[in-house]
């Protein structure tokens, strides 16, 4: 019997095409930076970091989950690239050096508890960027949390790898623009039984003006916001925003 953790199953079933789109966004927005030092905040299993390292970037992956970082180390070894792996809270990057580029994708900032924590992270990133450094990140919008996610359901079955995945989302009545995700993986074992691994995730969104104000207050002077991985202008029905911020 082969038992797998939530992190392993999540990493296996995550849509790999999204990493390519984040990579393209990063390369397009980061082509003007002078150096190649990159910090991938909440970098998880290191899929994006490996792709950047393959393009000769000096990449550090920082994540709160030691299990995810173990997967990042594994993926780096498999790809034959070097990654610096750091277990860290994005709200406190003390003792880390400065970077030419900092990335934070997959709406990781939406997992922070409140705007205070978000702005704290913005400040930490600002202080760890070089003079011409760039901060790239995405966040889901209130339209996503208030309109798209409530009642959302997604089921997936992969017979080849003996996995099934169930995702349900609900509005969080106690948090403004909050949403609750119930995620469950079912892994079919060699004896025919199923292993269930589940987690509950909490996200919240913020108005665009709140985020822009917070970025401005910590010192960012050039803030560009777009949708669709930098391809479209912002509208009131965007599900996800993409930010490019410079000092």
From TrEMBL:
GO molecular function, one term: methyltransferase activity
Gene3D superfamilies: S-adenosyl-L-methionine-dependent methyltransferases, Vaccinia Virus protein VP39
Any one Pfam family match given in the protein's UniProt record, by short name: Methyltransf_25
GO-annotated biological processes: methylation
Keywords on record: Methyltransferase, Transferase
Claim: Transcription is one of the keywords in the record: no
Keyword Phosphoprotein: no
Domain Methyltransferase: 38-133
Protein name: Class I SAM-dependent methyltransferase
Organism of provenance: Limosilactobacillus urinaemulieris
